[in-house]
Amino acid sequence: MPAGPDALPKTVHAAGCVLWRRAPGTGALEVCLVHRPRWDDWSHPKGKLKRGESALAAAVREVAEETGYAAETGPELPTLRYPVEGRPKQVRYWAAEAVSGAFTPNSEVDEVVWLALTEARARLTQPRDRDLLDALTRRLEHP
What we know:
By secondary structure, this protein is α+β, with helices and mostly antiparallel strands. It has a single domain, classed as Alpha-Beta Complex (Nucleoside Triphosphate Pyrophosphohydrolase), CATH 3.90.79.10. Helix content is about 25%, strand content about 45%. The protein contains three helices and seven strands. Strands 1, 2, 3, 4, 5, 6 and 7 form a seven-stranded mixed β-sheet that branches. The chain is globular. The N and C termini lie far apart (about 50 Å). The mean pLDDT is about 95.
């Protein structure tokens, strides 16, 4: 049966990670942000789920595709919900430690940066993404 004119648009499901590491030399906490030229924004690595893919698997895949890093996932972080092009979007996030890898620019991401939390907070384009930094800090301090 076709959807009527009052039918709600289907939610876009995505997943990602707040990718972190200890800075070489100092051991200070750093997070990885990606620059997406299509949107000209700075965000955490994330992307849409493929058919039949779990959110966690999608999050790990997206980190690898967008940053070149393998990640060891930790606790789940808050889920963000917001509209994109007239459709609701839901993005599940996990804390994830970068364990190996290196970035190579690609069609989706042309630059990554590793920043201290205060610098990352200032660089993030969307205010909603800043809440994830607070959640990461809480989870790493109280696992």
